[in-house]
Design goal:
7-stranded antiparallel sheet; alpha+beta
């Protein structure tokens, strides 16, 4: 105790024993204060620009590499983005696949597939698309629980303007602002200053180290909301197919058979479509040759069918196809007739007279 008191007294009195000690003490205090404030500034800089010391080394190499984890999701009535949360599961927004029984998932290499199954939660605006082709190298981890700092850097990835804009996904940077909640929605949102645009919905929101913290959902004038990864983690096990659009087929009439034929092409259920070809038609083709005719088709929209007057087994049809060619979409419009034939209780495609329509007027879509 005596020694401690002597040491304290010595340290307190040392600067005042002579002028040189005093000046040394002042200089030391200034240097110490400068070092302390520098460390505080560095710590604040680290927090704002990297999300803390733990994420400092994640900043090297930029953020462009995160773009490879997004996929396109194309429905008949909407399109956006998505990302893998498991080998064969793509997460996206429900509004992208709403009213669409067979959306397409387009991979970064330009190939595409049709889902094996779709589950979701319409109220939460989340959907899970199950694909046959596993992509373990594209799976990203959901951060749960969330550990974020105010003004922490965020990176949003998605296909801006959808299939209308060719090339790689758009990578946007911004900062985390706040967590938002509403009694009208069953999810929590992250707010950032990123300016989301159409087509990026459903894509991932990353923190600096590449963990998914949210799902691109809505944006307006530099303020965007993202469904939090915590909400995704909690809700995915509860997803059902209750609100998912189902394919309905009726081949008991000529009109129903023609509609079923193009519905199968739309859903890329090629074997079932092939089985609607009549025995006579099959004399001119085989499964491989026939399916190769439609390998680029993303979507088919049927605008109407009607039975030809005076021809009980012949159906007039109008439809369009959306084709994926060299990383871009092409729209084609067709009209004409299919003659059907009843085989084994099912009407099948016998003979066609379908022609392409160049630049149809708006009336064409409504007249049948």
């Amino acid at each position: 105790m005596k020694f401690s008191l002597k040491l304290i007294w010595y340290l307190l009195s040392w600067p005042f024993r002579k002028w040189s000690n005093f000046f040394k003490t002042v200089i030391g205090a200034v240097l110490f204060s400068y070092l302390l404030f520098s460390l505080l500034v560095i710590a604040d800089y680290m927090r704002e620009n990297y999300g803390g010391f733990a994420k400092f080394f994640c900043g090297f190499g930029g953020t462009r590499w995160l773009g490879k984890y997004a996929v396109r999701v194309v429905g008949g009535y909407g399109e956006g983005s998505g990302f893998f949360i498991a080998d064969d599961q793509v997460l996206t927004n429900f509004h992208i696949i709403a009213d669409e029984p067979s959306p397409k998932v387009i991979f970064p290499n330009g190939t595409f597939t049709t889902p094996e199954k779709i589950l979701g939660d319409k109220n939460a605006d989340l959907a899970l698309i199950f694909v046959k082709e596993g992509k373990p190298e594209m799976v990203r981890t959901l951060m749960s629980p969330l550990v974020l700092h105010n003004d922490e850097p965020m990176v949003s990835v998605g296909y801006a303007l959808g299939t209308r804009l060719k090339g790689e996904p758009t990578v946007l940077k911004g900062r985390f602002n706040a967590v938002r909640e509403s009694k009208n929605f069953p999810v929590t949102y992250l707010q950032t200053d990123i300016n989301l645009v159409r087509g990026m919905s459903g894509g991932p929101l990353f923190e600096k180290c590449g963990k998914v913290v949210g799902v691109n959902t809505m944006g307006l004038a530099g303020l965007s909301l993202f469904i939090s990864s915590v909400s995704v983690d909690e809700l995915v096990p509860t997803f059902t197919d209750k609100d998912v659009k189902k394919i309905e087929i009726d081949t008991s009439t000529p009109e129903g058979a023609v509609k079923a034929f193009y519905t199968y092409l739309k859903a890329r259920r090629m074997e079932e479509g092939f089985n609607l070809l009549s025995e006579d038609y099959l004399q001119k083709t085989n499964f491989e040759e026939w399916t190769n005719r439609f390998k680029d088709i993303l979507d088919v929209q049927i605008y109407g069918t009607k039975k030809e007057e005076g021809k009980k087994d012949t159906v007039f049809v109008k439809f369009s196809t959306t084709n994926w060619v060299d990383g871009e979409v092409e729209e084609h419009y067709y009209e004409g007739t299919w003659q059907t034939v009843l085989e084994d209780g099912v009407y099948k495609m016998y003979r066609s007279n379908i022609k392409e329509v160049e630049k149809p007027s708006w009336e064409w879509f409504y007249e049948i």
